[in-house]
Write the structure tokens for this entry.
Amino acid sequence: MQNEVVHHSISMMGMFQDSDLFMKILILGLLFASIWCWAIIFDKLMMIRRMRERMKNFEERFWHASSLSGFADSLPKKTKEPLAQIFINAYHEWKHLVSEKAKNSAIKMEERLEKVVQITIERQIEKMENRMIFLASTGSVAPLLGLFGTVWGIMDSFNAIGATQSTNIAAVAPGVAEALFTTAVGLIAAIPAVIAYNKITHDIDRLAGRMETFGNELTTILSAQSQKEDK
């Protein structure tokens, strides 16, 4: 009598349906992480695109402005543009220092302005880096979870081999395929997350450098303006 061979589907849906409860929970968790990563990726890419356009438009308006006071009055009170927030905070601090007659110390004024600019930039970077930790975590943890699921599945396959006393490759292969399926799902979640994390982090660093450059130029302009008013 030949050993009875249980037929399993080798499709992804079939392997998911044939897996046990633990494997199903693990696969669903990895798929959810992958979907959430893609949502974050698209959101961040759109955010970076908007930031670039807003920065470009603001710099054009700023360098063509006839006066700092007129330009400050033309800006909305609430804005999401990073360079506009840097300008508003630095300009208000400069006006405050001038009104307090603190301009007698040019070094002190420049230090205060640099501090305000740096704090504003750090807050902007913190907003842009929001949820980036999820991409980094998925990129590092998802392959390990997939590997853990593979080990779990292979252990089940060997237990089944021992219970049935069958060494037929046709009986072993479906269980091994189901075990390797979790590794594939883990890599599907991890690879885009790692690539996107590196890409988005690089873009955020470039935006931060652009803000730093504008902040330094603005500090120099405001300090020079104070020296002109002293004369």
Observations:
- Helices lie at 12-18, 21-63, 68-74, 82-99, 106-128, 132-164, 169-230.
- Residues 1-7 have pLDDT under 50 and may be disordered.
- The radius of gyration is 29 Å.
- The chain is about 85% helix and 0% strand.
